[in-house]
């Protein structure tokens, strides 16, 4: 089945550590996105990528980094500079980042907790 | 700039009664609008989308939404609620600024269905 796979489902991190969240898609989509979800705030865009080897900052990129070396993969690193990293992280993809009327498909999310 | 406002953070209905989840949008362009559903600790699933074709849009699981330009609204409805409809619902507008399609999320409406 085609889809988006995020791993792990739950992740615990000690303060001061970097951690990387995995996102893989087999939908052959060009565009990929990372969102952060906090209670009562909806989803906020962290980073997005329209094509391989290109990515752009979203609304809340500080303390995060990404790479897009392969079309299928868009990992997110939460660095120690992110002051409040505990949240639910969602990865998404769409067929093209340039088409304004296309929907995004979402993974099942990773819940990150800083301990 | 594009934005969406979900007018109710919580809605509670009885099983078998109608559902109404309200959404108002703001857009400088003819918008693309979406409704997504999220069950606890899961990713988001597309319910339906409006992309300037028919103003009454039918989606999955018996949901539908009507685009009303004069009222800048895109309310989600269902004639008869089922227990499995209990979830969080997000109204989303596509941001057409720039070269990249970005989705702007409302803050969500949590739907409770009472037996």
In short:
Chain A is mainly beta. Chain A has strands at about 5, 10-15, 20-25, 30-35, 45-50, 55, 65, 75-80, 85-95, 105, 110-115. Chain A is globular and about 40 Å long.
Key descriptive features of the protein:
heterodimer, A: 115 residues, mainly beta, 7-stranded mixed β-sheet, 4-stranded antiparallel β-sheet, 0% helix, globular, B: 115 residues, 54% strand
Written account of the structure:
The complex is a heterodimer of chains A (115) and B (115). Chain A is an all-beta fold and 115 residues long. Chain A is built from no helices and 11 strands. Chain A has strands at residues 4-7, 10-13, 19-25, 31-37, 43-49, 56-57, 64-66, 76-78, 87-94, 105-106, 110-114. In chain A, strands 2, 4, 5, 6, 9, 10 and 11 form a 7-stranded mixed β-sheet that branches. Chain A has a 4-stranded antiparallel β-sheet with strand order 1-3-8-7, with no helix packed on it. In chain A, strand 4 (31-37) and strand 5 form a beta hairpin. Chain A is globular and about 40 Å long. Chain B has 115 residues and is mainly β. In chain B, strands 2, 5, 6, 10, 11 and 12 form a 6-stranded mixed β-sheet that branches. The chains are: A mainly beta (115), B mainly beta (115). The A-B interface holds A 4, 6, 31, 33, 35, 40-45, 48, 50, 56, 58, 88, 90, 92, 94, 96-109, 111 and B 9, 32, 34, 36, 41-46, 49, 51-52, 90, 94, 96, 99-103, 105-108.
Low-confidence stretches of chain B: none
Q: Please summarize the sheet with the most strands of chain A.
A: 7 strands, mixed
Alpha-carbon distance between the termini of chain B?
41 Å
Q: What percentage of the residues of chain A does DSSP assign to strands (E)?
A: over 45%
Count of helices of chain A?
Answer: 0
Unreliably modeled segments of chain A: none
Sheet with the most strands of chain B?
6 strands, mixed
The average pLDDT score of chain A comes to 91
For the secondary structure, the number of strands of chain A is: 11
- SSE pattern of chain A, N- to C-terminal: EEEEEEEEEEE
Morphology call of chain B = globular
* Overall pLDDT metric of chain B: 91
């Amino acid at each position: 089945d085609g889809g988006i796979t995020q791993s792990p489902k739950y992740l615990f991190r000690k303060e001061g550590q970097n951690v990387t969240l995995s996102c893989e898609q087999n939908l052959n989509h060009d565009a990929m996105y990372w969102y952060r979800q906090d209670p009562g705030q909806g989803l906020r865009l962290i980073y997005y990528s329209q094509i391989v080897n290109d990515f752009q900052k979203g609304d809340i990129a500080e303390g995060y980094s990404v790479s897009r070396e392969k079309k299928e993969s868009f990992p997110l690193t939460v660095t120690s500079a992110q002051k409040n990293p505990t949240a639910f992280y969602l990865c998404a993809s769409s067929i093209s980042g340039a088409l304004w009327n296309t929907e995004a498909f979402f993974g099942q999310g990773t819940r990150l907790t800083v301990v | 700039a594009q934005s969406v406002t979900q007018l109710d953070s919580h809605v509670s209905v009885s099983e078998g009664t109608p559902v109404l989840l309200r959404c108002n949008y703001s857009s400088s362009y003819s918008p693309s609008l979406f409704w997504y559903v999220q069950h606890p600790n899961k990713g988001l699933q597309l319910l339906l989308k409006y992309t300037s074709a028919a103003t009454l849009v039918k989606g999955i699981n018996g949901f539908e939404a009507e685009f009303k330009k004069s009222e800048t609204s895109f309310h989600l409805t269902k004639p008869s609620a089922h227990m499995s409809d209990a979830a969080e619902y997000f109204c989303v507008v596509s941001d057409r600024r720039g070269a990249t399609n970005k989705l702007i999320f409302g803050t969500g409406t949590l739907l409770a269905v009472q037996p």
